[in-house]
Structures are given as structure tokens and as C-alpha cells.
Inverse folding.
């Protein structure tokens, strides 16, 4: 390159870079923040209402889809968008930043403190959402700094499903399973009779942590200290299952859906899964499915994490009052009176309103064994609030390390002690 | 003589005036030419600024500020200089991840190149059905990555995977392919399989350009096939080799998709690219979104790629000289 051309090239690249810097500096200090103004009472519903939820399996024509569409106000239609749980919060973040957030979002409950304190949600007062009549422990994730941000759509919990045919063939009596020792003995018997043992989801991320928490809390561990001996013992339990061949090695990559598919093959004796499967489990063809509460380490029932999403209104920057009016109309339709029970049934949850729940249980016998489990469920964000997300990442790392350790006790201990989350 | 005795001022005034006119019109032409050239390159510069320079600078700026979800939406992230870089480099995961990235990249491109070259030489001797076979070898390149990645993950399943059954025929114990310790080798195998067609195609066309007369001359001198390969094929392929390796290197450094589909970046399959991706979007084990740290790791990856790009330019310049 000649000297003149080189100088020209340097000039042009300097020009390009400085223009880019100026652009970057301008946009990084944007003040287009969504305003905390506007109220549902001041707005009117619009023709199109956008609704985001994580129920990707429920397509058009499913119970949930019909239930939602039936709650469209006069003259409006509801546009539904579904994304996996892990993506929904990030998409909401971008949408609020751009100013085109949906009218309503169904957000997983452990993400509510993070979303609210990051300024992504409008308060329930602003959005005209009635927050009375819900169980305190189920409403708790939606209350940040004393302000309520949404209402729980329903709640679900984890239980231990079992294949009745496999267990009978192995000579296992489920009523004897009351702690980890008896559970392990039962699994051993099942494996000895030729079937496979237990399937669960150990995937990296919140889904795997959700499935791990009953064992974690059942051992007496607390989220405030995930390197305690109790926590390590929970990790050791799962690690031993994989090492003995009682649980599939793919557990560390399976989500709950994949884990349930394995159970449906009929080869597994036990499956850890949730109350949203209760309907399909009861109607299962091929083999009978039963359910027992997840046992704690020494005795009793393990506390399970509260599952279920919150209905909330994202913060809007333009026409805020109209968007909040949309949210108010749809949410009050979904969650009021008898319709609340129908809403919960359509996604396979038990209602978070004790009165509605009583009616649900009375009319549908498959819920009877689930009531004590759901009522004894523990909130994930109760103690940690916004910090839960970080601790969950550490716990996920520890659990993945334990599952990979193949039973090696030192490795399991190291995994729990060194989980940094970064 | 007459020229020398002429009045110098008179004789130079006219040329100077003419020169001034010529200079003015030349300047006008130059300015018009300059404006025209700016007009031609303006669209390209605009495109580069919007789609390359701006995101790049934004990325670096983001890594110099401490972002969280709230400041991502509302702005106002505090400037912390190189603190984020210091934290990332001091993290216990950094050096293992760098080592894993290096292993993944270097082993990938080496094996892909060698196997691609071997296949290209094999196909050079055009036998019947060679073009069909060559087309079939392109299948890994043509399959959607989600299909290839999912199929490899399925084949490598530790419980009932086809790969372990195949190894079982030779009496080898089943390998837990996707565990934390073996994940790197699992994704390496899949990535090598994916990259061979690219190398095959480019090296094959490079081989076509070597004149047959060179080989004939060598045969006359009594050179065997191995001598011919070392002394004629390899040196003639030098420019093609350099470009293939550079393209392969820069591409492999950025690979996220095949690793993510197979292992989600768990265990020792974590590379700088997957780590940055996981932190930027809160996926995988990094369930927390870390905007600044992701930008920092991304910038580090950029510097590595840039270093190799500059190395390529340096080797090209040396060749020209």
C-alpha cells in the first residue's frame, strides 16, 4: 500500500470509529425510560391485546388457549405468544426497553422479585389488579418492598409418580416409603426385578434446581448456605442413583418433559414430576400410575418449591393507561369468582385462592393427594428475594457437578463448595 | 542563445498564469472526483458503521460499565473501567475455559484439515462414482445444524446410544460421552465431522490448480507418491492452506451452536463463545444474565480472533515480499 493510500485508510477508519463511538455514547445514556405514570382506571381497552406466557405445549384449541381467548373484553381480541420459561424474562426486558411490552405476562414466580425490582412491571394498583383473597405464601413472590405486582395464576408442586405394574412385579409396597433409606431400598428392588429405577430432570438452569429442591430441603439444607453437609448429602443421593445405574445418565441433560417421556416408556419404576401431569397420569394407557409425596431424608414429607406463574402487567411507555386497562380487564376475568377455578384447571394447577381450591378439589378427585403437598410448599424467593436467581445458578452448578461425579463423594463435596455461579 | 537572452519575467509570467489556470481547474476536477468517490463509498461506510462498528463499540463500552437488568433498560450503568475484565480474568473459570477453547479450536482445524486433504487427494484420482461419493461427503455441511447436533447427542447417549453399542462390538467399555469430563471430546468429534466437507471442497479445488506437468516432471526424476505429495502438492497448496486454516480458525473460535445443542456448554465443553452466550442471555448453568461480563468475554474473544487475522496479513505480506 502506498503511503498516501495508507494515510487515507487510517483517516477513514478513524472517522468510522469515531462516528460509532458517538452513536454508542448517545444511545447508552438514553432517557426513554418507561414512565411510572398511567393507571388502568384512566384508560380504555384496545382492539388487540398482547399476552405472553410460557405454556408452549398448549397450542390453539387447548383448554388454556380457549380459556384465555374467552376472556377477551368486548370488541378486543387476544394475541397469545409463548416462549420457554428461561427466555421469557429476557424477552420482556428487551420489550420494556424498546417500549413495546405486552399487555399481560405470565411470569414464573421466582423471577417476580427480579422483574419487579428491575422496573419491568407495573404495580397491581396501577394496573387495576385485585390482589385480595390469595394464600399469603403463594402471593409472597409478587410482593416486593411492600408493593404487590401481580397475582398467582395457580400453584403446582412436585410429587413422586410410580408405575404400579412395575412396583407390583418387584414386590414393592409404596406405603413403606417414608424416608430416603426406604426409597433407595424400593428402587433397588425395582432394578433387581429388571426394570429401571427413577427418572428426574437435572438440566442446568432453574428447571433442574426446581426438581432438586425437594431433596435439598428434605435433607434439611437451606438456600442461605448451599455448601452445608445437608446440601452435600442431597447431591450425594442423586449422584449415587446415577452411579448405581438407578437413574439415567441423561438426567443431567433432561428437562421435565424428556424425563416424563422416559417414564411413559413403562421401563421406569419412579418419576419425579409435577401436579400438572396429574390429569394425563390418571388417564394413562398402558400402565397404572400412582403418586406419593416426595419423602424427606429422615421422615415425613419433603417441602417442595411452589411452582406456578404470576399474571402481571409490564411497565408501558406509550398509552400506558390503555394497556393497563387491558391488563385489568383480562386478569380480573381470568381470576374472579368461579372462572378462577376454570383457569387453574386449564393449565393443570390448583388455584391459589383457598375457597376456589376447595371447590376444585371437591369436584375433581385427582387433586386430593396433592392438597397437603401444595399447602406445605415453600416459596423459593421467600428468604432471598432478588438474590434467589444468583443462588439458584450456584445450586445448578453444584447439582450438575454432583451428577457428573458418578458417586465420588469428594467430587460431590467439591462441587457444592466451589459453585461460584459466574 | 536567443532563449537565454529573453526577458525571464516576461517568459515566466505567461507560463505561471497558465499554470495557475491549470492548477485551478485541476483542483476543481480533483474536488469533483473526491466528492464522487465519497458518494460511491458512502453506502458501504454507512453499512459498516451500523452493522459492524456500532455493535463492536457498543460491546466494548458495555464491558467497561457495570450493567444489571435495571440499568440495561433504564441506562445509568456506572463506569468501572477495567474492573469487569479483572474480575472475569480472576474468575476460577477463566483459564480452564481459555484452555478448552484453544484445544477445541486447534484440534478441530488440524484434524479437519488433515482429513479434508487426505480425502481431496483421494478424490483427485477420478474413479467411477467419485463425484457421487464426493457429493455424499458434503452432507454434513448441508444438514441443518440442529439436526446434526441432536443426532450426535442421541448417538452419544450414555444409556442406550448407538456409539456405545458400536464400541461394544470391539469390546470397549461404554463411554459416558456427555459427562463433564468427556464433553469436550464429544463436541470435538461432532465439530470435526461437520468441518470436513468445507476443507474437502476448498482443498480439492486447490489441487485442481496444480499443473499436471509438475507431477510428470517429478515422475521422470523418479519421485515416489510420498515425495510428490511433500514436495509438489503441499507447497503448491500453500495459499489455499493458509486461507482455509484462517477461515476455519475464525469460524471455530465462534462456534456456539453445535456445543450448545449437544451439551449446553456444561463440563469441559465450555468455550469462551459459549460462556459469553450463556452469560448474555441467562442460559445454561449461568442462569443469571450478566451483561457486562458477557461483553468482556466477547471482547477478549474478538481480540484473539483479531490477533490471528493480523497474523494472516503478516504472512501474506511476507509472501508478497
Amino acid at each position: 500500500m502506498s503511503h498516501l493510500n495508507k494515510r487515507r485508510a487510517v483517516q477513514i477508519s478513524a472517522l468510522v470509529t469515531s462516528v460509532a463511538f458517538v452513536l454508542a455514547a448517545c444511545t447508552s445514556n438514553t432517557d426513554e425510560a418507561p414512565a411510572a405514570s398511567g393507571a388502568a382506571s384512566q384508560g380504555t381497552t384496545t382492539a388487540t391485546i398482547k399476552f405472553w406466557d410460557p405454556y408452549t405445549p398448549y397450542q390453539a384449541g387447548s383448554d388454556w388457549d380457549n380459556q384465555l381467548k374467552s376472556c377477551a373484553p368486548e370488541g378486543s381480541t387476544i394475541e397469545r405468544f409463548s416462549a420457554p420459561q428461561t427466555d421469557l424474562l429476557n424477552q420482556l426486558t428487551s420489550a420494556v426497553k424498546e417500549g413495546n411490552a405486552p399487555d399481560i405476562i405470565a411470569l414464573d414466580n421466582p423471577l417476580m422479585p427480579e422483574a419487579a425490582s428491575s422496573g419491568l412491571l407495573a404495580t397491581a394498583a396501577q394496573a387495576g389488579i385485585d390482589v385480595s383473597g390469595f394464600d399469603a405464601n403463594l402471593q409472597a413472590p409478587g410482593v416486593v418492598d411492600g408493593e404487590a405486582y401481580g397475582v398467582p395464576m395457580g400453584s403446582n408442586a412436585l410429587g413422586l409418580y410410580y408405575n404400579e405394574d412395575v412396583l407390583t412385579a418387584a414386590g414393592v409396597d409404596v406405603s413403606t416409603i417414608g424416608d430416603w433409606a426406604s426409597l433407595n431400598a424400593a428402587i433397588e428392588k425395582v432394578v433387581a426385578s429388571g426394570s429401571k429405577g427413577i427418572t428426574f430432570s437435572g438440566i442446568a438452569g432453574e428447571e433442574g434446581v426446581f426438581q432438586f429442591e425437594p431433596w435439598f430441603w428434605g435433607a434439611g439444607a437451606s438456600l442461605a448456605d448451599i455448601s452445608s453437609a445437608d446440601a452435600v448429602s442431597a447431591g450425594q443421593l442423586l449422584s449415587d442413583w446415577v452411579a448405581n445405574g438407578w437413574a439415567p445418565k441423561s438426567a443431567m441433560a433432561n428437562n421435565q418433559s424428556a424425563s416424563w417421556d422416559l417414564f411413559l416408556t413403562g421401563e421406569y419404576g419412579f418419576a419425579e414430576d409435577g401436579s400438572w401431569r396429574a390429569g394425563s397420569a390418571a388417564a394413562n394407557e398402558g400402565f397404572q400410575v400412582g403418586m406419593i409425596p416426595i419423602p424427606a431424608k429422615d421422615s415425613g414429607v419433603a417441602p417442595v418449591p411452589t411452582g406456578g406463574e404470576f399474571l402481571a402487567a409490564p411497565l408501558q411507555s406509550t398509552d400506558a393507561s390503555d394497556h393497563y386497562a387491558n391488563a385489568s380487564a383480562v386478569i380480573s376475568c381470568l381470576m374472579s369468582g368461579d372462572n378462577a377455578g376454570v383457569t387453574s384447571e386449564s393449565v393443570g394447577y390448583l388455584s391459589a385462592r383457598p375457597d376456589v381450591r376447595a371447590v376444585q378439589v371437591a369436584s375433581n378427585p385427582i387433586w386430593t393427594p396433592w392438597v397437603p403437598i401444595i399447602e406445605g410448599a415453600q416459596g423459593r424467593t421467600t428468604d432471598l428475594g432478588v438474590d434467589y436467581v444468583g443462588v439458584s445458578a450456584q445450586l445448578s452448578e453444584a447439582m450438575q457437578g454432583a451428577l457428573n461425579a458418578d458417586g465420588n463423594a469428594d467430587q460431590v463435596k467439591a462441587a457444592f463448595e466451589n459453585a461460584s455461579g459466574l | 542563445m536567443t532563449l537565454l537572452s529573453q526577458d525571464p519575467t516576461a517568459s515566466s509570467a505567461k507560463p505561471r498564469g497558465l499554470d495557475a489556470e491549470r492548477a485551478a481547474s485541476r483542483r476543481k476536477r480533483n474536488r469533483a472526483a473526491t466528492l464522487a468517490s465519497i458518494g460511491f463509498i458512502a453506502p458501504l461506510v454507512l453499512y459498516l458503521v451500523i452493522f459492524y462498528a456500532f455493535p463492536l463499540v457498543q460491546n466494548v463500552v458495555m464491558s467497561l460499565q457495570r450493567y444489571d437488568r435495571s440499568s440495561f433498560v433504564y441506562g445509568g450503568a456506572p463506569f468501572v473501567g477495567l474492573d469487569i475484565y479483572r474480575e472475569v480474568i480472576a474468575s476460577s473459570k477463566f483459564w480452564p475455559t481459555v484452555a478448552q477453547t484453544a484445544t477445541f479450536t486447534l484440534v478441530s482445524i488440524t484434524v479437519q484439515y488433515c482429513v479434508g486433504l487426505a480425502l481431496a487427494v483421494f478424490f483427485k484420482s477420478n474413479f467411477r462414482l467419485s463425484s457421487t461419493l464426493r457429493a455424499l461427503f458434503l452432507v454434513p455441511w448441508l444438514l441443518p445444524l440442529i439436526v446434526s447436533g441432536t443426532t450426535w447427542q442421541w448417538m452419544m447417549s450414555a444409556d442406550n446410544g448407538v456409539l456405545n453399542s458400536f464400541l461394544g462390538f470391539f469390546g470397549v467399555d461404554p463411554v459416558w460421552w456427555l459427562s463433564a469430563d468427556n464433553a469436550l471430546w464429544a463436541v470435538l468429534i461432532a465439530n470435526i465431522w461437520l468441518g470436513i466437507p468445507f476443507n474437502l471442497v476448498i482443498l480439492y479445488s486447490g489441487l485442481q490448480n496444480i499443473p499436471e506437468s509438475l507431477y510428470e516432471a517429478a515422475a521422470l526424476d523418479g519421485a515416489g507418491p510420498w515425495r510428490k505429495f511433500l514436495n509438489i502438492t503441499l507447497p503448491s497448496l500453500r495459499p489455499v492452506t493458509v486461507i482455509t486454516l484462517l477461515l476455519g480458525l475464525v469460524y471455530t473460535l465462534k462456534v456456539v451452536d453445535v456445543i450448545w445443542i449437544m451439551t449446553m456448554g456444561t463440563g469441559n465443553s465450555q468455550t469462551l463463545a459459549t460462556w459469553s452466550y450463556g452469560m448474555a442471555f441467562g442460559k445454561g448453568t449461568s442462569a443469571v444474565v450478566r451483561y457486562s461480563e458477557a461483553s468482556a468475554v466477547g471482547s477478549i474473544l474478538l481480540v484473539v480472533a483479531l490477533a490471528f487475522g493480523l497474523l494472516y496479513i503478516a504472512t501474506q505480506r511476507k509472501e508478497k515480499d
User: Anything to note?
Assistant: Chain B touches chain A through 47 residues (CB under 8 Å). The radius of gyration of chain B is 29 Å. Chain B has a mean pLDDT of 88. The CA atoms of residues 184 and 268 of chain B lie 5 Å apart.
